[in-house]
Amino acid sequence: MPGSTNKSIKKRRWKRRKDARPGEILDAALMLFVERGFAATKLDDVARKAGLSKGSVYLYFENKETLFRAVVREMVLPEIKRVEQQVDRYRGPAQELVRKLVYQWWSMVGESRLSGVPKLLVSEASNFPELARFFVDQVIRRVRRVFVRVLQQGIDRGEFRECDVNHAVRVLIAPLVFAAIWQHSLYPFDKDPYDVRVFLDTHLDTFLNGLLNESGQKI
Amino acid sequence: MPGSTNKSIKKRRWKRRKDARPGEILDAALMLFVERGFAATKLDDVARKAGLSKGSVYLYFENKETLFRAVVREMVLPEIKRVEQQVDRYRGPAQELVRKLVYQWWSMVGESRLSGVPKLLVSEASNFPELARFFVDQVIRRVRRVFVRVLQQGIDRGEFRECDVNHAVRVLIAPLVFAAIWQHSLYPFDKDPYDVRVFLDTHLDTFLNGLLNESGQKI
DNA sequence: TCAATAAATGACTTTTTAGTCATTAAATAC
DNA sequence: GTATTTAATGACTAAAAAGTCATTTATTGA
Fold first, then answer.
1. A17-61: what fold?
2. What string of DSSP letters covers B177-212?
3. CA of A209 vs C1' of C11, distance in Å?
4. For each of chain A's 219 residues, which pLDDT tens digit applies?
5. Spacing of B158 CA from D29 C1' in Å
6. Per-domain residue ranges for chain B?
7. Are B181 and A122 in contact (CB under 8 A)?
8. Residue A9, class by beta-carbon neighbours within 10 Å (0-12 exposed, 13-18 middle, 19+ buried)?
């Protein structure tokens, strides 16, 4: 047999994949930053998880802080835009809209790898103030704005009773964010069973029922 | 005048205060750990904040991890016991009891230095699994138990409609914990005004109204 | 097939911070 | 007042992880 058979034995030590690297590094970094926090995450571990060496990470990101900022900015923004667009499409009774938005939010954000971002930002807010500002402005407040519109619509249409919409929205959103944070922190240590879907259902039931005006019709 | 007046001029370089040190170190450590997280907190900073030198911290705590565990265990347990006792004293209609418990929880936990602990544990759960387990068992689940009792009482007395009490309790508590976490993380970066008291009021209004029997059956 | 190019490496240096300990001096006892 | 004890210090060492770069080798293209 010619040498060609031997050639298949020698295995490449690595591949050159300039285009794929940044995304893979961001993915690995997101997972580890969410799990351990910024300071406790070793770049060596990020590199290993992304399937390359630490030195190579520095080919794509200036330093650890830059990588961290990139994780938040580049992973969050595209997703939040998608959510916003989806949300804009919905029409119908406010009550139903709220339900749909909540379920949708959970399946798009809560169950995706993005669900760790709230925990990450809560943890690192004071170490990365400008990122915290970015997140509040570009994510939280935009989500609030969407829900405020829906609630106000419900009130205008007589479905809901008059109330302080700005605070009602926070009450509506808090359990969603909480659920995401919980999943990535203390949930694994909680012995009591708990189903996020049922939790969200229960929240929606009490919240919507609590907002209905007396003549309010249920769906 | 006698020389005694001159004596007051020479100033001591430090005081020996064996008894007061541990508490002061724990206080300083709690504040910094909550603000920055475990890994990003330098023992030098803790020492400075506590008014002594780093070397002295090691006279009272074996190492940084031991200090961290002590912060959580020794600051949380006494407070949680106090809350539990206070809670046990209350009697009255379930609705009113829930309101009182929530307000009380906020003024005892939410507004005290203890309010940072939920954020701290959420952030460090996966780095300190046995502390996470401790916190869930000794704090979260005990708080839940108290509220479950109250809600069940309300149902038995016919005030509230039948519902999944275990999930309802989580819905009731989530915004409380969320508020505490929020205060210590993203709140300072949020431009929209927000009053925790009003937030809690709004939550109580919708939640309790949503649970009331007259309002109709669960969807 | 063989240069030329540049992606990738990993051993190395630097920086940072945890942890130590010989020394200092405040408090106490005689 | 002096000796003794020990709380407190801060300069030091050790360990760990960030960041660098000369070298290696996959890939390209002539």
1. Arc Repressor Mutant, subunit A (1.10.10)
2. HHHHHHHTTTGGG--S---HHHHHHHHHHHHHHHHB
3. 65
4. 333 333 344 578 899 999 999 999 999 999 999 999 999 999 999 999 999 999 999 999 999 999 999 999 998 888 888 878 877 787 789 999 999 999 988 988 888 888 999 999 999 999 999 999 999 999 999 999 999 999 999 999 999 999 999 999 999 999 999 999 999 999 999 999 899 999 999 999 999 999 997 654 444
5. 84
6. 17-61, 75-211
7. yes
8. exposed
Sorted by sequence, the CB contacts under 8 Å of residue A42 that are 6+ apart come out as none
For residue B209, which of A91, A171, A131, A49 has the smallest C-alpha distance? Answer: A171
Task: Write out chain B residues lying below 8 Å of A35, CB-based.
Answer: 126
Please tell me the CATH code under which domain B75-211 is placed.
Answer: 1.10.357
C-alpha closest to that of A185 among A118, A104, A129: A118
Beta bridge partners of A212: A160
Across the interface, do A123 and B123 touch by the CB < 8 Å criterion? yes
Partners of residue B189 in chain A, C-beta under 8 Å: 125, 129, 132-133, 135-136
Angle among Cα A70, B36, A77 to the nearest 5 degrees reads: 25
CA B122 to chain centre: 12
Buried b (16+ CB within 10 A) or exposed e, B84-106: eeebeeeeeebbebbbebbeebb
Yes or no, beta carbons of B178 and A177 under 8 Å apart: yes
List of long-range contacts for A11-17, beta carbons under 8 Å, 24+ apart:
A14/A52
Which residues, listed in sequence order, are joined to residue A160 by a DSSP beta bridge? A212
Distance B53 CA to D8 C1' (A): 8
Shortest alpha-carbon distance between residue B85 and chain A (Å): 23
